[in-house]
Amino acid sequence: MQRPRIAVHKFASCDGCQLAFLNAGAALLTLAQRVDIVHFAEAGWLDPLAEVDIAFVEGSISTPHDIERIRAVRASANYLVTLGACATAGGLQALRNGIRESANWVADLYASPQYIESLPESRPISAHVKVDLEIWGCPVTTEQVLGATANLLNGVAPVNPGEPVCVECKRRGHACVVVTQNAPCMGPVTRTGCGALCPGVGRACYGCFGPAELPNAASMAKHFEQSGLSKREVARRFLFITSAAQPFADIGRHYQDE
Amino acid sequence: MHADRFLPHAALQGLYEALAERGYAVIAPRVKDGAIFYEESRHPDSLPWGIRLEQDAGASRAVQDTHTQCFAWANGPQALKPLTFAPRETLWRIKRTAVGFAVEAIEHAARPLAVIGTRACDLAALSIQDRHFLGGPYPDPGYAARREDMLLIAVNCTHPASTCFCASTGYGPAAEAGFDLALTELEGGFVARAGSARGEELLAALTLENATPEQAEAAAASVRHAAESQTRAIPGTQLRDALMARLDHPRWREVAERCLACGNCTLVCPTCFCHAEVELPELDGSGSLHAREWDSCFGERHAYIHGKQLRPEISQRYRQWLTHKLATWHEQFGRSGCVGCGRCIAWCPVGIDITEEATALLK
């Protein structure tokens, strides 16, 4: 029987989510025995147009060339998985979306701006092609990525929990930083997957994994304000790593504009 | 019946040692990250000496005070529940075979635990959890293994938090049953009463003086005072008919504007037992682990049934939680599911108060 073929593609991103594969240790060897990895530039395999069973895509779409590439990736893949905040929500770089002056930044930042060809907005993969599974995170974890892969290799639709960070935080027995420190923790409205990393070391959640399944962002924002944050500070809690994801985008801009 | 004894603070180390000699790992409260947690402990030095708990809706602060007691606080976010109903646990293992698959049982080896500082509210909650996990024809083997040899040393509550309302539910502040030893803290030590043969044997081994009538009265008075000083109350213990007649009350939508649907109330609730089961396949295709983890009726999985989300709105999820806890629980267990520990009030990030919501719903 022919082994399943996988590819790992990169768009506008920091390369960090692909490390979920490279940091997997012994599991990476197991994976390599079960599948043929045909394209994975960060690990050395180059065949971007190869037909594959699963294409993992990191990064957002931010140039006209990206649009052509993602269409080719989609056409060559049976199942497409986005990895992380950039591919799933536009990423940190989506902070430029909707800011009119952003077009001038290129001239200010680059010595030869004529070589820069950016789209006005950084958009998620799903804005351009059909996505079969979105894995949230900044970065995604090995457990998420290999867990989804193991399900797919067994012919099972992967589960993608949208539960809030609080649920995992309580399973791990951490002290709630909202209740004990009045910290502006995004955990109640943020999707789990990180293992409640920040509250586990006494820090407020930054919302890296994007909105939870049923996030009450309006109540969360109001609570932050009542806890002493300025409107601008409230806006920054929501307009950060997944600034383009709803409802973070709307609530963040509402507080920013006030 | 044996007389009450007096256990001086200085004799606590002897109690720890006696428990260790009898094969128990001691679980006791300690302050960690600004809250009180129950963790393994070898020495009474780690108890919350001089700690006072400032608690209100959505806020809890463990504050170092100058007093010399170690149980002058009400409770932390958890007590017994994580020790018996594990937050995450593998239930069975599937192995792929030449002809299909085989199911392998998991061995549930548990160390005997002695828990020092169990509150009356948590004992009441434990009896519900026992019935849920151990009652009926299929007792849960993991829960049973952890529960079987558990020794419970209750400490009657003398310093309720502003969030406490056990006096109105009838489940506190004094431990009535289900303990091996019950202590009431005074200056300098505890009035100790045995609740089982194991407890009596422990007290006898510690060679303690009998409590004086003055000590016994002081202990009773401080528990009475704990009941009288509670400021919150649940508006009745038979709310089934009243709440089920108000399923369309506008209050459900009002509370949903504040409710974050984060599930914290259910996760700190000592009687909530909802869980989800997940399948964790091995990457090499050799098999799969079937695990159980804490879940919440505020989460998407709870009412997702065969492709349909039955409760897509926060108001519906809050209503599900509150009406189960205070109303339909009666049909299931013959009592309310609320023991009055107040954790759902203190540990709600936005401070939603079950006593306030229930009161408003009855109007």
Task: Give the topology, please.
The complex is a heterodimer of chains A (258) and B (363).
Chain A: E1 5-10, H1 19-22, H2 26-34, E2 36-40, E3 52-58, H3 64-76, E4 77-83, H4 84-89, H5 102-109, E5 133-135, H6 142-153, H7 165-171, H8 177-181, H9 197-200, H10 217-226, H11 231-238, H12 248-257
Parallel strand pairs in A: 1-2, 1-3, 3-4, 4-5
Helix pairs in contact in A: 11-12
Chain B: E1 5-8, H1 12-21, E2 25-32, E3 35-40, E4 51-56, E5 59-64, H2 81-84, E6 88-97, E7 100-105, E8 113-118, H3 120-134, H4 141-148, E9 151-155, H5 166-169, E10 181-186, E11 189-194, H6 197-205, E12 209-210, H7 213-228, H8 240-244, H9 251-258, H10 264-268, E13 275-281, E14 287-294, E15 304-305, E16 308-309, H11 314-333, H12 343-346, H13 354-362
Parallel strand pairs in B: 2-8, 8-9, 9-10
Antiparallel strand pairs in B: 1-11, 1-12, 2-3, 4-5, 6-7, 6-14, 10-11, 13-14, 15-16
Helix pairs in contact in B: 9-11
Describe this structure in words.
The complex is a heterodimer of chains A (about 260) and B (about 375). Helix content of chain A is about 35%, strand content about 10%. By secondary structure, chain A is α/β, with parallel strands linked by helices. Chain A has 2 domains: about 5-155, 3-Layer(aba) Sandwich (Rossmann fold), CATH 3.40.50.700; about 165-255, no CATH class. Chain A has a 5-stranded parallel sheet with strand order 2-1-3-4-5. In chain A, strand 3, helix 3 and strand 4 (about 75-85) form a beta-alpha-beta unit. In chain A, helix 11 packs antiparallel against helix 12. The longest helix of chain A has 13 residues, at about 65-75. The relative contact order of chain A is 0.12. The model of chain A has no long low-confidence stretch (mean pLDDT about 95). By secondary structure, chain B is α+β, with helices and mostly antiparallel strands. Chain B has 2 domains: about 5-230, no CATH class; about 240-360, no CATH class. Helices cover about 30% and strands about 25% of the residues of chain B. Chain B contains 13 helices and 16 strands. In chain B, helix 9 packs across helix 11 (about 315-335). The termini of chain B are far apart. The model of chain B has no long low-confidence stretch (mean pLDDT about 95). Chains A and B meet through helix 2, helix 6, helix 7, helix 8 and helix 10 of A and strand 5, helix 9, helix 10, strand 13 and strand 14 of B.
